[in-house]
Amino acid sequence: MAGPVRSAEQEREPGQSASVPPVRRRLPRRALLALLAVLAATVGGFGSWALYGSDWLRIERVSVSRSDGPRELTEQQIEQAAGVPLGAPMATLDKARVRDRLLKELPRVKSVDVVRAWPSGVSLKVTEREPEVFVPTTSGYTEVDAEGVGYAEVAEAAAGVPLLELDLESGASLRRFGEDRIRTEAVAVAAALPESLRARTAVIRVRSYDAVVLELSGGVTVRWGSAEQSAAKAEALTALMKAVEDAEHFDVSVPSAPAASAG
Asked: 61-128 architecture in CATH?
């Protein structure tokens, strides 16, 4: 039979004291919450000071980067128009205001992305407008982009960009669509031309909404009609010019039934 069971107290040698487990004290809930609030306020206050009050994280430089395309504007022009406040806290930078100021001051700018380059820089990623046509004026030419926006005056037209001549006839077409709409539609015709045709197009002459004529190099003319179905018309014209190389007059106003004739 098993002997009597001895307790841990009985197993202890004489003179040996029992170990006392450590006592863990917890802060009262209110005290803990108060401590956490003090810590949060301290961290938040330091963060606010670092962002707004210290010499850290302040705007020290502005850089300009460009997308592919025209680069007529200088970096100095862009930086000056942007008006980024050097020395101001980075956190106070109003990116929307900088963007709007650039677009207003420099119509040649099509879009701009204002980026904080932490800790102390601001980057301006600029895309400039590209001329789709030149519109003659009394003192030179207006550059007009694919959206129909006239954004700059220049003394000379660049090679390879068509002139847009508006010889609008008074009548139902002008009353219905208006000059601005007709101009925008004519620009859409230029934008639809493949590079091979665009390079040969000297003038896009417009008499009404549906009376657009292309004047190409070598005395070749193309009756285009309206800006509708411009992609199909460009495709039909390209094929017809290859098939009838000696033709001087083309008609693609109805792209499914193009025509060509000699002089």
From this structure: Roll (3.10)
